[in-house]
Amino acid sequence: MLDACRYDSFERLYDGYFSGDLQKRRSPGSATPEWAAKTFTADHDITYLSANPFVNSLGVPLDELRWGASCEYEWAAADHIDTVVDLWRDAWDDDLGAVTPGSVTEHARRWREETDDPLVVHYLQPHAPYLRRGTGRKLRRIRGGVAAPPEDDPPDGSAVGAVREWVERRLGRSQVAMMLGMLVELDPASVFDIGGRGFAETIRSYYEENLRLALAAASDLASDLDGRVVVTADHGEAFGEHGVWEHHVETHIPPLVDVPWLVLD
């Protein structure tokens, strides 16, 4: 499963990596917490390898997480999923502020030898951070809010983190705030791309660069798997459509809820 993978980008790029029957499906959520809470509602006898901190083995409900990670859902993965493997913790690359696609594939190969359960392999990409263009400051904060006990200090005490928090407090969910929130995740050199191509086109090109990395790693894993294999996504990503950037819970616009469902040959 690819995190934040919108249908149109996937449709345009996937056949360089996979062969199969592609359909457009509607996700029940426009961000991972909403999708997870509305998808895994019963008891599921599966092994879930998660590069996303919102799906974790800790048993902390989403509405009790900290530092911007909290969502208004009384749901915890450990209450519904038999085995959750915390790749967001065990395979974390601190320099990048993310879990890389290659690391997810490496862990999935090991786990397929450990269990007969159906596997869900949750890649973090194409979700930001854009691995060749910046680091995951926002994701570090979310990860810290999931993993750290309440008495710990917030995980991002950097100047950039302080700027982002100030922007979020002052501007809320405005389009300007969403765009600035994306901008502070990028390397300074990105301003030259933005100046030449514009903000939306630059961000989308970085996003699709991330998507290619995820597709390559997932294709590498799929070649080792038997049985029915499906490539899909939890939700999509917005690049200014309807005044929305990135993705947010309960924002059910097509770029966020139209996702791929590819059954591999």
UniProtKB/TrEMBL annotation:
It comes from Candidatus Halobonum tyrrellensis G22. InterPro entries: Alkaline_phosphatase_core_sf. This is Sulfatase. The lineage of its organism: Archaea, Methanobacteriati, Methanobacteriota, Stenosarchaea group, Halobacteria.
